[in-house]
Automatic annotation (TrEMBL):
<protein>
    <submittedName>
        <fullName>Uncharacterized protein</fullName>
    </submittedName>
</protein>
<keyword id="KW-0805">Transcription regulation</keyword>
<dbReference type="Pfam" id="PF04967">
    <property type="entry name" value="HTH_10"/>
</dbReference>
<dbReference type="InterPro" id="IPR007050">
    <property type="entry name" value="HTH_bacterioopsin"/>
</dbReference>
<dbReference type="InterPro" id="IPR056433">
    <property type="entry name" value="DmsR-like_N"/>
</dbReference>
<keyword id="KW-0804">Transcription</keyword>
<dbReference type="Pfam" id="PF24277">
    <property type="entry name" value="DmsR_N"/>
</dbReference>
<feature type="domain" description="HTH bat-type">
    <location>
        <begin position="171"/>
        <end position="223"/>
    </location>
</feature>
<feature type="domain" description="DmsR-like N-terminal">
    <location>
        <begin position="14"/>
        <end position="152"/>
    </location>
</feature>
<dbReference type="InterPro" id="IPR036388">
    <property type="entry name" value="WH-like_DNA-bd_sf"/>
</dbReference>
Amino acid sequence: MGTDGKSPGDPATPDGVRAGIAIHGTGNCPLVDASTAHDGPITGINWTHAGDTHTEEFRVRHPDAVDTAEGIPDPESVVDLGDERVYRYDRPRDGGCACRVIEELDCPIADARAEDGVLLLTLHLPELERLRDVVSALDGSAERVEVRYLVEGTARDDGASDRTLVDRGRLTDRQREVLRTAYRMGYFERPRDANARAVADALDISPSTFAEHLATAQRKLLKETLAEN
């Protein structure tokens, strides 16, 4: 046992980060285009390359949006999972594709989804400098790249805290307004300075609608804060 409490050969704690980026104006991604007509995100996006062909797979909750989408070339329904359906389609490999640009930097993409015309990616990077490389490389492939959140690694042996920057971009404008108003009026205080009806009246919505917005917003934030990978 070493003087630092570690056994010889124990791996050092990595200094990496988990980053969420939003890519606006990719212009050449069929799924990003289709997401503007789809109610909810297009998820589970992954791909493979064979020769000059790029085969892409994705999941949707509402197949009608795929069937009517003009940008996806000949989407093929692969399997129906009940609440989602999996599709595939082929297209020529595109050197200007944002995901390929990132892969060429030797940065695997942990998660990819498209929502409301924006490509949302999750990356696990060994150091923060690599995130700067990714953003710079995308300069010619997108109108704008937005870093939505950064999550540092878990606590180190020196007692450093496990810090998380919450992705507020997951919330809609209305959800942010509901949270902000509830917080300002003291809804989260104990005892409360305002009850649900008072906050709902201030927002000019019904108490049930307030409760729905609040629950959805809290669920999104908790999912990001409590993520383990």
